[in-house]
Q: What sequence folds into this?
């Protein structure tokens, strides 16, 4: 747990990614510090779940930092889901084209990550099966006369 002048960051390592839960308030006094801490975990390149469901207040500086973090994660190809709560929902209603990957719960976010991992594995296993070279006997019988 880390405390940022009214915002508390809790870190939960899961097999599918890292859950970062933020409690308290994010405003102009701590938005940059909270964003900096989230960036440290994004550098690990594993999926993130940013759980804001327990946040009591999110000011415009905090919302702006969240949008910047989302853009940075997309650019660096780090999957990040945002669990919205009472503090974030009013801002999401005002700013319609926010682009945030909002989910309803941490469980939903982890299921999404699991689905993505499964789909990639299936795609890769299909590509490997497709590219597998034919055995020598099969090549000989496959050559047209």
A:
């Amino acid at each position: 747990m880390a405390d940022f002048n009214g915002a508390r960051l809790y870190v939960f390592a899961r097999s599918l990614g890292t859950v970062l839960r933020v409690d308290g308030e994010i405003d102009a006094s701590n938005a940059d510090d909270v964003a900096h801490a989230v960036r440290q975990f994004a550098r690990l390149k594993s999926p993130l779940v940013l759980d804001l469901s327990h946040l009591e207040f999110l000011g415009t500086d905090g919302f702006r930092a969240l949008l910047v973090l989302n853009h940075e994660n997309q650019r660096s190809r780090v999957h990040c889901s945002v669990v919205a709560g009472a503090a974030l929902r009013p801002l999401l209603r005002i700013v319609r084209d926010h682009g945030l990957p909002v989910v309803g719960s941490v469980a939903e976010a982890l299921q999404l990550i699991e689905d993505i991992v499964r789909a990639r594995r299936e795609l890769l296993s299909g590509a490997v099966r497709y590219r597998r070279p034919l055995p020598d006997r099969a090549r000989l019988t496959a050559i047209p006369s």
User: Anything to note?
Assistant: The CA atoms of residues 16 and 113 lie 7 Å apart. The longest strand covers residues 18-26.
